[in-house]
Design a protein that fits this description.
The complex is a heterodimer.
Chain A lengths: L6 E3 L4 H10 L3 E4 L5 H6 L7 E4 L9 E4 L2 E5 L4 H6 L1 H6 L1 H8 L4 H4 L4 H7 L7 H6 L3 E6 L2 E6 L4 E3 L2 E2 L6 E8 L6 E7 L10 E7 L9 E6 L6 E2 L1 H8 L5 H14 L10 H21 L5
Parallel strand pairs in A: 1-3, 2-3
Antiparallel strand pairs in A: 4-5, 5-10, 6-7, 6-10, 8-9, 11-12, 12-13, 13-14
Chain B lengths: L3 E7 L2 E7 L5 H7 L18 E4 L2 E4 L11 E4 L1 H4 L7 H8 L9 H14 L5 H7 L11 H15 L6
Parallel strand pairs in B: 1-5
Antiparallel strand pairs in B: 1-2, 3-4, 3-5
Helix pairs in contact in B: 3-6
Classes of the chains: A alpha+beta, B alpha+beta.
The complex binds flavin-adenine dinucleotide and FE2/S2 (inorganic) cluster (2 copies).
Chain lengths: 289, 161
């Protein structure tokens, strides 16, 4: 089956890409194409103009910049999975990229595409929410940075305007002693879309309480932070009682749907189980539990 | 929709083709006669169309041909032939990992991508490496065995590349 017709631009500079997006109505970026080409083949989308961002050097790679980890939007999931910098500072993101799709999809799919596509099940979203990431946007008329917990507006809807490109995802280097983990449940072990996913990031004990982030995927129209679950853990010891309270709070904060991958009841049960399983080893591994 | 001439190095051979932008790498490879690259789902689910693009495993149904301009592509038929099979191809034949054969070229390229970076994989690593390749016939046990056997044969020498 053929793809619908379109014009394809392959700019080598960011400015050129932004100019095309600004001046061509209906123009859409293409990165790895693993979501877009599937939608075009299914005739759910037929954009008249595609702007391939794959030749723009400065959009790929992982670097440290002023206390932040910066991931270029066109960095592939495979590159993030293999990155030593990511493994060192944000192992939960390495884990999520290791469980993402299959090796062949990971070699093309990008983190910018994953966030821009805004599936409720996007696997990099819960770790990025737990890391307090922000999304760097650029257009011909300027630049802005949006915290990721305000970026997702609904299923496949985001803060991004049509003339904007995501140029990078950035997050502060977590404090020494921060523990982070990610898990997902799919219909099978590998190459499965998440039925439920969860990420936690727990900072070291500090005056005024510890930093706790719990984020969930595929349980609401957008990936979400479970803020009441976070509060249940931010002060006092993290013991079995606190873990159960957090798991319960997380389940009540979700608004899951029933679909072919699981019922809303199943998804709530799965959140409870995932959050417990993620938190227990974090606590066992340290002294303040 | 304007055509453009692109250059592809396929299995070591330079090819030039003119085509519009809405043609996938899968389509151009098959049109050029590389019919070992199979057309299965055309949405990234089955891996029958898998090839190496600059050494990396990709689903050619999800790559636009223009995006492969100037790059190197390796397909299963570039790995070896009936007369001179690659150890991976021999291992698949000898372990009974081929039934209808539709998944085989993609499985072989997934195996090549794995063994290039991990010459001695565990069973778990093998299963992960072929997780994007569906087989409707074998139940995977013989395929996992074929990959392990290929690793042993390559380690034992006789790798043609
Ligand atoms: C077989 C298969 C399995 C999959 N499994 C998973 C999985 O396990 N987990 C998961 O989360 N996803 C999965 N996906 C979905 C998809 O692979 C991911 O969402 C991927 O990260 C999309 O990235 P891409 O670079 O391929 O995006 P593209 O397909 O190129 O683009 C997707 C969307 O994002 C926009 N876009 C891309 N880059 C930018 C940018 N820099 N700025 C602005 N907009 C941009 C495009 O315009 C388009 O609307 C799977 C897909 C397939 C085909
Ligand atoms: S035909 Fe490309 S993955 Fe199925
Ligand atoms: S041998 Fe028939 S699909 Fe694998």
């Amino acid at each position: 089956m053929t793809l619908p017709k379109f014009e394809l631009h392959r700019p080598e500079s960011l400015d050129e890409a932004l100019d095309i997006l600004a001046s061509s109505p209906g123009a859409v970026p293409i990165a790895g194409g693993t979501a877009l080409i599937v939608d075009m083949r299914g005739r759910r989308l037929s954009p008249p103009v595609l702007v391939d961002i794959g030749l723009i050097d400065r959009l790929s790679g992982v670097r440290i910049e002023g206390g932040e980890v910066v991931i270029g939007a066109a960095t592939t999931i495979a590159e993030i999975k293999e990155s030593d910098l990511i493994a060192q500072h944000s192992p939960l993101l390495s884990e999520a990229c290791g469980l993402f799709a299959s090796p062949s999809v990971r070699n093309r799919a990008t983190i910018g595409g994953n966030i821009a596509y805004a599936s409720p099940a996007a696997d990099t979203a819960p770790p990025l929410l737990a890391l307090d990431a922000s999304v760097e946007l650029a257009s011909a008329s300027g630049r802005r940075t949006v915290p990721i917990d305000r970026f997702f507006l609904g299923v496949r809807r985001t803060e991004r305007r049509d003339d904007e490109l995501i140029t990078a995802i950035r997050f502060p280097i977590p404090a020494e002693g921060t523990e982070g983990r990610f898990r997902k449940l799919g219909l099978r072990r590998a190459d499965a879309i998440s039925v439920v996913s969860a990420a936690v990031s727990i900072g070291p004990p500090a005056d005024g309480g510890r930093r706790v982030r719990i984020a969930l995927g595929a349980v609401a129209p957008t990936p979400i932070r479970a803020r009441r679950a976070e509060e249940a853990l931010s002060a006092g010891p993290i013991d079995e009682g606190a873990i159960l309270a957090a798991a319960e709070a997380a389940a009540s904060e979700a608004s899951p749907v029933s679909d072919l991958r699981g019922s809303d009841w199943y998804r709530r049960e799965a959140i409870r189980a995932l959050v417990r399983r993620l938190l227990r080893p974090v606590v066992e591994g340290r002294s303040d539990g | 929709m304007d055509e453009r001439t692109i250059r592809l190095k396929i299995n070591g051979r330079e090819r030039e083709v003119s085509l519009p932008p809405n043609v996938t790498l899968l389509r151009v490879l098959r049109d050029l006669g590389y019919v070992d690259v199979k057309n299965g789902c055309e949405k990234g689910d089955c891996g029958a169309c898998a090839v190496l693009l600059d050494g990396k495993l990709v689903n050619s149904c999800l790559v636009l041909a223009w995006q492969a301009d100037g790059r190197e592509i390796l397909t299963a038929s570039g790995l070896g032939s009936i007369e001179h099979p690659h150890p991976i191809q021999e291992a698949f034949a000898d372990t009974g990992a081929v039934q209808c054969g539709y998944c085989t070229p993609g499985m072989i390229m997934a195996t090549k991508a794995l063994l290039d970076v991990n010459p001695d994989p565990s069973e778990e690593e093998i299963r992960e490496a072929i997780s994007g390749n569906l087989c409707r016939c074998t139940g995977y046990a013989q395929i996992v065995e074929a990959v392990a056997e290929a690793a042993r044969r390559i380690a034992g020498g006789g790798d043609s590349g």
